[in-house]
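Title: Prediction job returns without error message
Component: structure pipeline
Severity: low
Priority: P3
Assignee: unassigned

Description:
Job completed but the reporter wants confirmation the result is attached to the right record. Sequence as submitted:
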Amino acid sequence: FGSSLGFWFKRQFDDLKGKEQGLSNTVQVDPFGGLYRKLTFNQDHKLLGGLLVGNAEDYFSLLNLSKQENLGKKVPGDLFLGGSGDGDAEDLSDDSVVCLCQKVTKGQIVDAIKNDDACTIPDIKKCTTAGNGCGGCVLSTGFIPKILKSTLESMGKTVFTGISPYFPFTRAELFEIIRVKQLKTYEDVVKECARVGKIPDMQAALVGDEVCKPVVASILASLWNEVPVNDGLRELQDTNDYVMANIQRSGQYSVIPRVAGGEITPQEMILMGTVALKYNLWMKITGAQRVGLFGASIWQLPDIWEDLVTGRACFQGNDSIKVQSSVETEGMESGQAYGKALRAVKSCVGTSWCRFGQQDAVTMAVKLEERYKGFRAPHKMKMGVSGCMRECAEAQGKDIGLVATVKGYNLYVCGNHGTSPKHAQLFLSDLSEEECFKYIDRILMYYTFTATPLTRTSKWLENLEGGIEHLREVVVDDSLGLCAEFERRWDEQVERYECEWKKVVDTPELRKKFRQFVNADEKKYGDLPWEQVRKQKKIQLEDMPTIIGPAKITKDKKTDNWTWRDVGAVEDYPKNGGAAAKISKTELAVYHSSVTGKWYAAQNSCPHKQLQVLSRGLIGMAGATPKVACPIHKNTYNLETGKGISNPGLNLATFDAKAENGRVLIFVPPDDVLDKSLGRDAPAGNGHSCGGACGETSKDLQW
């Protein structure tokens, strides 16, 4: 980081160059923890910039300090790791940027709290847009929760600790209520736990929003393990679980099958390659030792997964693609890369091949993945197994890590890489295989019972009263008397497990949920053009511009030539969610709210980057106002007026909608007027997902 570009261009961080300019450095090195920190100051002790390697959790604090004229009450020595990591929010000036993604300052946060009655993180996100980017600033380690706490306390108020205004409970409290009362549907949870204010009981069945619905969905999944896209559950899911795939910047999705322990057969490799050729998907080895297929449109997902789970695929080449491929194998399961679940278990080859191996790391990794696959937790989890102390699988940087010894395995817990890397802590040494599973069962279940939403295991352990010693007491000594239940629940989880995508493939009603449009059989191949990059085609990096200002068309300006248009049967739309419809060349998002009992329609394109994805967003209430949250960037919109809630500069075209005689109707202008305002050119229809960029036609590709 640096307070100006000059810091880098003048190489002020370099000792020799720095001395020539009268600068000084502090250096902190921990070779055992992989830590290196160099901070550069001028003669007035102004922080100019620095280099952080390893633990960079105080990056934002240091970045803000580098933009100040001085260190305030601090001296350079205070900025060693731990000196600024806790980042006192009161030391920040009002113009300090606390959300880098949205460029929101501390002063704006304070104004929202004092003037707009923003008493929760969701309130702050709505009022200021802070946290609507990567979300790091609103986590417990960010400045915004600290600013919220200190500002409310200065006003004589206490910080709200519930997951949302609808549910005044922490996640752990809500988890316990749902577990004890055996609540298995969202309606049951709302009835027992929600505070719905003045909303009539009949209309409160599915009250909630994009904040609390995914939390409840996660808890229900952890306890009862149902397929996320089942009726009544899909409407609760956040962006990725909504379609059981990771959404990409093009509005398309990635497909990542499970490769247990990183062990993959030649037939499985051929299967994935054949599927990639057949659907023209971009391939890459992921950071978690798996193969990712990118660029799938929503309507293609069931077809792609049918090939993968059945293990049968065929591709016939053409003049441009001189490859023919056909394969039959046992099939592959979902890797849950889209869920807050176990992503993968990384392994070295261990005693299978390595001359230094002390245990069979691959077999152990496969067993771990088979036991813990599919389990939904407060956040994603990664594991690793190394066959010896050389640690080729980097197990000590995982949520759960096993490092082989002569006697068994050392168990490491609560580490992670990512934005705030944490070295895992040694939990127990020289464990047998049976002991490993026993303690991992208990640790993960205790984490799931007690963690706050979207909290990695490392932060959970940091915030756990008593730390790792308390965790040992709970897990090893059974101090809370919960271990029997932990183990029983894991056995039930393993017994109940089924591949989510196989269930969708085999269930016609679930496959229907992935249609591109409710009222048309037409299909489209994403919103951004594709281009040749290196050896493969991928989407172009240039995003479409954000459209700021009033909507191009609005129901308030309707004229006599507007008409009601049929966009499908009521039964084909979710009871409390949205789906896409098409009129002429225009995509529309159609919603039904069980809270208001009304139908709504809007443009399907989010003004921010113009991706046609709004129909896949979560709907909810902002007070008495129905709203929808964009599934990509989380901008929220008023479904009645189309006005932006989280960002007033972004606005939607909205239309009147109603249900009549079992059909859904939308009041819209003539096709030419509608298309001129909101339409896109018809999809190329070339049979694969490059949107016409490659110049091939459907007759050229045969499968």
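Comment from assignee: result matches the submitted record. The chain has 19 helices and 27 strands.
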